[in-house]
Amino acid sequence: MILVNTDYITGKELEMLSLVKGSTIRSKHVGSDIMNSLKTLVGGELDSYTEMMNEARAIATKRMVEEAYNLGADAVVNIRYASSAVMQGAAEVIAYGTAVKFINK
Protein backbone atom coordinates (compact mmCIF):
# COMPACT_ATOMS: atom_id res chain seq x y z
CA MET A 1 0.00 0.00 0.00
CA ILE A 2 1.43 3.37 -1.03
CA LEU A 3 0.90 6.22 1.43
CA VAL A 4 1.52 9.83 0.38
CA ASN A 5 0.61 13.30 1.60
CA THR A 6 0.14 14.60 -1.95
CA ASP A 7 -3.05 14.34 -3.98
CA TYR A 8 -1.29 12.43 -6.77
CA ILE A 9 1.24 9.65 -7.35
CA THR A 10 3.62 10.36 -10.19
CA GLY A 11 2.97 8.13 -13.19
CA LYS A 12 -0.33 6.76 -11.86
CA GLU A 13 -3.87 7.54 -12.88
CA LEU A 14 -6.11 7.31 -9.82
CA GLU A 15 -9.72 6.36 -9.21
CA MET A 16 -10.88 7.80 -5.89
CA LEU A 17 -12.73 5.34 -3.69
CA SER A 18 -13.52 6.92 -0.35
CA LEU A 19 -12.32 8.87 2.65
CA VAL A 20 -10.53 6.53 5.05
CA LYS A 21 -9.49 7.21 8.62
CA GLY A 22 -8.04 5.64 11.70
CA SER A 23 -7.91 6.98 15.21
CA THR A 24 -6.86 6.17 18.75
CA ILE A 25 -6.90 7.80 22.16
CA ARG A 26 -3.77 7.27 24.23
CA SER A 27 -2.69 8.22 27.73
CA LYS A 28 0.30 7.82 30.00
CA HIS A 29 0.18 6.44 33.51
CA VAL A 30 0.03 8.79 36.50
CA GLY A 31 3.74 8.37 37.30
CA SER A 32 4.75 9.66 33.87
CA ASP A 33 2.24 12.47 34.13
CA ILE A 34 3.71 13.64 37.45
CA MET A 35 7.29 13.44 36.14
CA ASN A 36 6.32 15.40 33.01
CA SER A 37 4.62 18.05 35.13
CA LEU A 38 7.85 18.52 37.08
CA LYS A 39 9.90 18.64 33.88
CA THR A 40 7.80 21.54 32.58
CA LEU A 41 9.34 23.65 35.36
CA VAL A 42 12.84 23.33 33.88
CA GLY A 43 11.98 22.85 30.21
CA GLY A 44 13.01 20.26 27.67
CA GLU A 45 11.39 17.49 25.68
CA LEU A 46 8.76 15.38 27.39
CA ASP A 47 10.05 12.06 26.11
CA SER A 48 7.19 9.89 27.34
CA TYR A 49 4.64 12.15 25.62
CA THR A 50 6.69 12.15 22.41
CA GLU A 51 6.72 8.34 22.54
CA MET A 52 2.98 8.27 23.26
CA MET A 53 2.20 10.48 20.26
CA ASN A 54 4.47 8.47 17.94
CA GLU A 55 2.73 5.26 19.03
CA ALA A 56 -0.68 6.90 18.54
CA ARG A 57 0.21 8.06 15.00
CA ALA A 58 1.42 4.55 14.13
CA ILE A 59 -1.80 2.96 15.41
CA ALA A 60 -4.01 5.53 13.65
CA THR A 61 -2.10 5.01 10.39
CA LYS A 62 -2.42 1.22 10.67
CA ARG A 63 -6.18 1.50 11.19
CA MET A 64 -6.51 3.88 8.23
CA VAL A 65 -4.56 1.47 6.00
CA GLU A 66 -6.74 -1.45 7.12
CA GLU A 67 -9.86 0.51 6.13
CA ALA A 68 -8.32 1.31 2.73
CA TYR A 69 -7.28 -2.31 2.23
CA ASN A 70 -10.86 -3.45 2.95
CA LEU A 71 -12.04 -1.16 0.12
CA GLY A 72 -9.55 -2.76 -2.29
CA ALA A 73 -7.39 0.35 -2.46
CA ASP A 74 -3.88 0.42 -3.91
CA ALA A 75 -2.89 3.59 -2.09
CA VAL A 76 -3.99 6.37 0.23
CA VAL A 77 -3.32 9.92 -0.97
CA ASN A 78 -3.54 13.31 0.70
CA ILE A 79 -2.86 11.85 4.16
CA ARG A 80 -3.25 14.21 7.10
CA TYR A 81 -2.92 13.86 10.86
CA ALA A 82 -4.74 15.74 13.58
CA SER A 83 -4.62 15.52 17.35
CA SER A 84 -6.54 16.93 20.24
CA ALA A 85 -6.41 16.71 24.00
CA VAL A 86 -9.24 14.62 25.37
CA MET A 87 -8.25 15.21 29.00
CA GLN A 88 -5.03 16.00 30.83
CA GLY A 89 -2.46 13.40 29.81
CA ALA A 90 -4.62 11.85 27.07
CA ALA A 91 -4.80 12.70 23.39
CA GLU A 92 -6.72 11.55 20.35
CA VAL A 93 -4.82 11.15 17.10
CA ILE A 94 -6.60 10.71 13.79
CA ALA A 95 -5.06 9.87 10.42
CA TYR A 96 -7.17 10.40 7.32
CA GLY A 97 -6.81 10.43 3.57
CA THR A 98 -8.39 9.32 0.31
CA ALA A 99 -8.29 5.66 -0.67
CA VAL A 100 -7.57 5.20 -4.37
CA LYS A 101 -7.19 2.43 -6.96
CA PHE A 102 -4.74 2.61 -9.82
CA ILE A 103 -6.22 2.80 -13.31
CA ASN A 104 -4.09 1.02 -15.94
CA LYS A 105 -1.66 -0.50 -13.42
Task: Describe this protein with a few key phrases.
2 helices; 105 residues; UPF0145 protein SAMN02745120_1079; alpha+beta; Translation Initiation Factor IF3; UPF0145_dom_sf; UPF0145_YbjQ-like; 4 strands; 4-stranded mixed sheet; elongated
How would you characterize the overall build of this protein?
- The chain has helices spanning 30-42, 47-70, and strands at 2-3, 13-27, 75-87, 90-103.
- The chain is elongated.
- The longest helix has 24 residues, at 47-70.
- The chain has a single domain (2-103), classed as Translation Initiation Factor IF3.
- The protein has a 4-stranded mixed β-sheet.
- A hairpin with a 2-residue loop joins β3 and β4.
- The protein is of the alpha+beta class and 105 residues long.
- The protein is 35% helix and 42% strand.
- The chain is built from 2 helices and 4 strands; from the N terminus they run ββααββ.
SSE blueprint and pairings:
Elements: E1 2-3, E2 13-27, H1 30-42, H2 47-70, E3 75-87, E4 90-103
Parallel strand pairs: 1-3
Antiparallel strand pairs: 2-4, 3-4
InterPro entries: UPF0145_dom_sf, UPF0145_YbjQ-like
Family: Belongs to the UPF0145 family.
Protein name: UPF0145 protein SAMN02745120_1079
